[in-house]
């Protein structure tokens, strides 16, 4: 975290709007993969950013990189190696908080909403309250990932504010694919806080069951992935920014209107036949908890909670404070 804070200071003198032409190349990391990042793969497969930019009178090339993980993408955004990045609300909020007054990173739009599931095969675990010495729960990032914040929120709900970090010592950082392999092999970890499609794939294994669902703790449908950028890029590239938002909205609409086509793109992005069956992927897309919308859901709940336990210095007054103007987030929260 300290690394990207230092990088962010480079932007402090760059708050004015430049008179130069808009960028001719847009750099976008594809993210960690899976259902949460499917709109990006739809945008890539159908060249939607290029399409909408051309309609606005700007010709752009899109550089899709494979930078993975919140830390890598944050560094890329603040160093100028990426123009738009995707992350879960907690990572975004920490970045918004730390860059407030310098790089001024804000949200562009929500990208997906879906639950994460804490899966385990440990016989002694009925709920996370049963965690004992030696148990390890795999999350993508200790303290700043969706699962970490959700478990902190659950701890406060059940045990009080002073117990917010009760479950932190049980968490370990692992990428999703390694964590799924470890869980299914019965080695290294006790549980995995997984996202689609790995959460469903794990549940097909005998003895694996879900003991916590993030939507249950959050009180309803919750943003899983969202897009952000810097104030500098927003100010200097209004047409390209608008083209990106239009492309994202079209990608989300395409997913729901042509689910077989979306599944094809998803499977190709995940390595083809080895990624799973089209039938399994279609079932997840048809699940009403899998949503693609630009409107943020429960992001303010994350922000309020993280501020209350000291994870955020700044507390946004409204959802509009977290997002740039130009995206219809009316009704979001």
Description of the structure:
The chain is globular and about 60 Å long. The strands form three sheets. Strands 7-6-8-5-9 form a five-stranded mixed sheet, with helices on both faces. A three-stranded antiparallel sheet has the order 3-10-4, sandwiched between helices. Strands 1-2 form a two-stranded parallel ribbon. Strand 6, helix 6 (146-159) and strand 7 form a beta-alpha-beta unit. It folds into two domains: 2-8 and 22-114 and 222-322, Periplasmic binding protein-like II (D-Maltodextrin-Binding Protein, domain 2), CATH 3.40.190; 117-218, 3-Layer(aba) Sandwich (D-Maltodextrin-Binding Protein, domain 2), CATH 3.40.190.10. It has 14 helices and ten strands. It is an alpha/beta fold and 333 residues long. The two termini are 26 Å apart.
Total number of helices: 14
Cα-atom radius of gyration = 20 Å
Strand content: 5-15%
Terminal CA distance: 26 Å
Helix content: 40-55%
List the helices and strands and how they pair.
Blueprint: H1 2-8, E1 25-29, H2 38-45, H3 48-55, E2 61-65, H4 70-79, E3 85-87, H5 89-99, E4 106-113, E5 117-120, E6 137-139, H6 146-159, E7 171-173, H7 176-185, E8 191-194, H8 198-203, E9 209-213, H9 214-218, E10 223-229, H10 231-236, H11 238-257, H12 259-269, H13 278-286, H14 299-308
Parallel strand pairs: 1-2, 6-7, 6-8
Antiparallel strand pairs: 3-10, 4-10, 5-8, 5-9
In short:
It is built from 14 helices and ten strands. The strands form three sheets. It has a five-stranded mixed beta sheet with strand order 7-6-8-5-9, sandwiched between helices. The chain has a three-stranded antiparallel beta sheet with strand order 3-10-4, sandwiched between helices. Helix 3 packs across helix 11 and helix 11 packs across helix 12.
